[in-house]
Amino acid sequence: MLVNVIVELIRLIIAIVLAVVSLYAGFFTFKWIVKGIDVQSELRRGNKAIGIFVGSVFLGISVTMYSCIQGILVGLNKIFADGVLNLNDTLDVVLSFLELGLGIMLGIGSIYLAIYVFSRFNPKTDMIKAIKNGNAAISCMVGGMIIAVSQIVHFGVIGIVTALF
Q1: Burial code of 46-82, b = ≥16 C-beta within 10 A, e = fewer?
Q2: Half-sphere exposure of 72 (CA within 13 A, CB side)
Q3: Other C-beta atoms within 10 Å of 134: how many?
Q4: Which is nearest to 30 in space by CA: 6, 1, 9, 53?
Q5: Side-chain half-sphere of 135: how many Cα atoms within 13 Å?
Q6: What share of the chain is helix, strand, coil (3-state, %, to 5)?
Q7: What number of other Cβ atoms are within 10 A of residue 127's Cβ?
Q8: Residue 161 or residue 23, greater confidence
Q9: Would you say 79 and 11 are in contact if contact means Cβ atoms under 8 Å apart?
Q10: Of 11, 30, 7, whose CA–CA distance to 19 is shortest?
Q11: Cα angle at 52 between 130 and 46, to 5 degrees?
């Protein structure tokens, strides 16, 4: 029983680390996408539109990353289950980390695509400028689109996980 608790604690720590890394990568990319906005200063200023937008990016990334992190934990379970590290277990873990990288790219890419598509469908609205100016309506709409696209990408990533494992 103690061994199971230790294994689960290790899994929890790994999941937390992977989640933080994924969110950091997403936030870094988000700052790159919204060039011209000092996100930290806007958040300190209380810009609710930026807060909604950043929150939806984090939520979108977490939705996509859920299945990736789950895949890594499944691979680690195989190692912990028999207590012996063999070539197949190692391959499973390596594939699951490659899947995590793919998931991060797909998650961030889908968010970028959602923003790009919104900009193309609404050429008269400068979305970034509107959000910087505190337009919460635009921020909520784009945030909803980000979350919706992330949900769809999540199912695609689950398909990859299922194919690999």
Answers
A1: ebebbebbbebbbebbbbbbbbbbbbbbebbebbbee
A2: 22
A3: 15
A4: 53
A5: 14
A6: 85, 0, 15
A7: 18
A8: 23
A9: no
A10: 11
A11: 75
Q: Give 20's Cβ-side CA count (13 Å radius).
A: 6
More confident call, 137 vs 80: 137
52-101 confidence digits (pLDDT tens): 988 988 888 888 777 777 777 776 676 666 665 566 667 777 777 777 77
The string of pLDDT tens digits covering residues 5-62 is: 887 788 788 888 888 887 887 778 777 777 778 888 989 999 999 999 889 888 888 8
Please tell me the predicted confidence (pLDDT) of residue 140.
92
The pLDDT value recorded for residue 165 is: 58
Reading the block at residue 131, the tokens are 């959000």
Please choose, from the candidates 97, 65, 64, 91, the residue with its C-alpha nearest in 3D space to the C-alpha of residue 78: 91
When computed from its CA atoms, the radius of gyration of the chain, rounded to whole angstroms, is 19
136 — pLDDT class (breaks 50, 70, 90): very high
Answer whether 37's CB lies under 8 Å from 50's CB. Answer: yes
Shortest CA distance to 54 belongs to which of 128, 125, 105?
A: 128
